[in-house]
Amino acid sequence: MKLTRTIVTEEGWNQASDRLANGGLTLLGLWGDAPCVYMALLDEATAEILVLSYACRDGAYPSVGARHPPAIRLERTIRDLHKLNAAGAVDTRPWLDHGGAPYAFLPAEGEGLHQIAVGPVHAGIIEPGHFRFTANGEHIVRVEQRLGYVHKGIEALMSGATLDDAAKLAARTSGDSTVAYTYAFALAAEAALQIAPPPRAVYLRALMAELERLANHFGDIGAICNDASFALMHTQTGILRERTLRAAELCFGHRLMMDVIVPGGVIHDLAADGPARLEELLSEIRRAFPPLVELYDNTASLQDRTVTTGIVKPDYARQYGAGGYVGRASGRNFDARRAVGYEPYSHLAFKVPVLDAGDVNARIWIRIREVEQSLALIDQILSLLPTGEIQTAIQANGKACEGLGLVEAFRGDVLVWLRLDASGQVARCHLRDASWFQWPLLETAIKDNIVADFPLCNKSFNCSYSGHDL
Amino acid sequence: MRKTLFESMTRGPLTEPPPAPDEAGLAELAQSVNRAARAKLGRSLSIRHVDAGSCNGCELELHALSNAFYDLERFGLRFVASPRHADVLTVTGPVTKNMREALKRTYDAMPDPKWVVAIGACAVDGGLFAASDVVEGGVKDVLPVDLHIRGCPPSPTELLKGLIALLERAA
Ligand code: SF4
After folding, report:
1. Which domains, ranges and CATH numbers included, belong to chain A?
2. β-pairing, A265-266 with B95-96?
3. Which of residues 12-71 of A touch B (CB under 8 A)?
4. How do residues A397-409 score in pLDDT, each as one tens digit?
5. Prediction ipTM score
6. Which residues contact A424 (CB under 8 A, 6 or more apart)?
7. Ligand 1 pocket: which of B49, B50, B51, B54 to mutate (most atoms <8 Å of CB)?
8. Is B90 in the pocket of ligand 1 (CB under 6 A)?
């Protein structure tokens, strides 16, 4: 992956903010590494990733969020975690730090408006977060999220950790994307140390990533329908999800494939009967899934709930650089597997489905199409799977170094940026979930919908709380 | 839809036989559950779940308990939406500073008698996050815990074993 870090002055930093604001670049990340702040940028035309760093003066840097709103929550986080201030910021409320004064929700004024407070503890088995609705009867005029409840200090724990320990923390950043996180972490470490994993490991990583994508998409398709009270779909896709996790356990020794990918390769080879098990899984999915898709497509009462509900405008998807099905259902043609083309995806054939309706229905269809693509990818991976070693030894190279990894998780691109010290320990690691640029769009998507449709919209996003709260 | 329904009728259930109760769990529970409570509840428990800081991995496996293979409800165990309807509180994750208050309030809202089950390596003692400044520790550092189900995450079978042990003792 091409990567250059440029140290910029205030002028250079502001120019980058302007290019973000005028749409010339997409924000991939913004994080602190005191006394510096870093910004990762994507040039979508060339798929080039740039990293800028700026040395703060008196603990402050020019606000990016003041010109480019997607940066606002990231700046609030940098202040909470690193005590670096964004000069000229529009929103200076804390974000992950809940210790201070009662949180001031944004006001919404008008006749007959009332507030509904939901969370952090929800009715179902889901992660904690707070949603503050302002509504007139059933009609929502504003929803504001308050996150940070599962803030565990992951990045702080990583500073000073060995590469092995940090990889374990990366694996536990968002459990549903444990493969994607360990994958991105490994790519970042390998880029920093300039080592390459053996070819077999490269393919096994992609195999796990596609199994993870399948399991999550099955879970999501069913769960969204379930939130429209269509339980049959949930039951049926739940069976496919379970079969996928069981196959993962047989192949790699863990249902979620946690801690299998490490810097340098993978620690668990595909079990001897793995290919046969996977063939069975694929043929079962190919038998059972198409009738479910047909069922979804032909059930008017279900379509009534999902079509035109929770629309994300394509302009917002582009502005926020929204990844995954949120972006691709709203016309943003970006998939890190293709755009950045990390190995082995540059050698595999697959389509990136894109729709432009931006509603719950479109986000379901993107997942359906991606299930089909993942099946085709697993076929290819199994037929191309090289033999040989699965791990390259990791050695510190005696000097400080940094690297970046960008991997397409089921919900969108995960970015990991890593700085190692001369002994090979982690000096600083930043993990950026796709959810950072999706959560704010959920606030836009729900406007003018009814309260009862919120669970449906929320599930169609299925943003991560833990991956966001870190 | 009819076709899918008919098919599932003729195929026979996917649900698997229940695992034996977890021995270690039974021993842990022997100390915490009294007979009087057992007599009152009958063989059924309502469970309220709180994620107090988990990575969400444990929640995925808790969800799996409701799929066709594990079918939790056949044991008289079901997840409920309100702590006021619950006998059991399951908790995952290290307890973060930001979730401590919400967790305690959920527990306080539950009627007696009640049990707390800490699920996953994080819930036991904070797991890999124990050393963090923004983490309180394991669930036992905030609430009295009756049963620990270990694993990262515990598999649905391990979860079932633990919950069945609770049912044998408590209900
Ligand atoms: S025990 Fe493991 S799976 Fe469960 S919350 Fe902790 S890290 Fe995640």
Report:
1. 2-87 (3.30.460.80), 114-146 (no CATH), 154-469 (1.10.645.10)
2. unpaired
3. none
4. 889 999 999 999 9
5. 0.94
6. A162, A163, A193, A394, A395, A396, A397
7. B54
8. no
